[in-house]
Design brief:
With 188 residues, this protein is of the alpha+beta class. It is built from three helices and ten strands; from the N terminus they run ααββββαββββββ. Strands 1, 2, 3, 4, 5, 6, 7, 8, 9 and 10 form a ten-stranded antiparallel beta sheet that branches. Strand 8 and strand 9 form a beta hairpin.
């Protein structure tokens, strides 16, 4: 299967999973309240048309004060970031080459396999918009649970169809003074 198609299928599956975890409303009043709650959460008018769509990962590095870089997901990381017109997003990043679990069962991994699985991928979903010329995000759920419910704002640059933003304090493998740099390319 073509890598972009694999990423799309992965993103679609994760989006379906994210939608399926919401509790089902049973009474008409619960259904109406759920619709009202969703309308409030999704009212995000600051989403510019240029941000809406599908983006593929170019780079996800920690950058140190002396200029050297660490590729967090190895060379040629893969990633997909899908953003709808209301600002809902789904993001998945993964190391291109990952080692499968020897047991073939994710509930029977070794500590080393679990560690690699955790460090070699990153997924989250939430909302994104532009506020005061900054990229503003709210993470609903993340594969790294410390990010659940987190809000953030960061500077960004847009050059043609390439979006770059900075993560001020990376949560993975960064020493004092390092920042993250994430680059995405719009899929046409």
């Amino acid at each position: 299967m073509h890598p972009r198609k694999q990423l799309f299928v992965l993103g679609a599956c994760a989006l379906a999973l994210a939608v399926s975890v919401a509790p089902a409303a049973t009474s008409p009043q619960e259904k109406e309240q759920a619709r009202a709650d969703m309308a409030t959460k999704t009212d995000n008018p600051q989403v510019p048309a240029w941000l809406v769509g599908t983006w593929t990962l170019v780079r996800c590095d920690n950058v140190y004060p002396d200029g050297h870089r660490i590729e967090l997901y190895g060379p040629h990381p893969q990633g997909l970031w899908m953003i709808d017109a209301r600002g809902h997003y789904l993001m998945q990043i993964a190391r291109a080459q990952r080692t499968p679990f020897a047991a073939g069962d994710k509930s029977k991994g070794t500590p080393e396999e679990y560690r690699a699985a955790s460090l070699d991928s990153n997924a989250h979903f939430g909302t994104v918009n532009i506020q005061n010329n900054q990229l503003a995000t709210h993470i609903d759920q993340a594969s790294f649970p410390n990010w659940n419910g987190r809000d953030g704002k960061t500077s960004y640059t847009l050059n043609d169809n390439q979006l770059t933003y900075i993560v001020a304090k990376p949560s993975s493998g960064a020493s004092e003074g390092a920042h993250g740099e994430v680059v995405w390319q719009r899929v046409n």
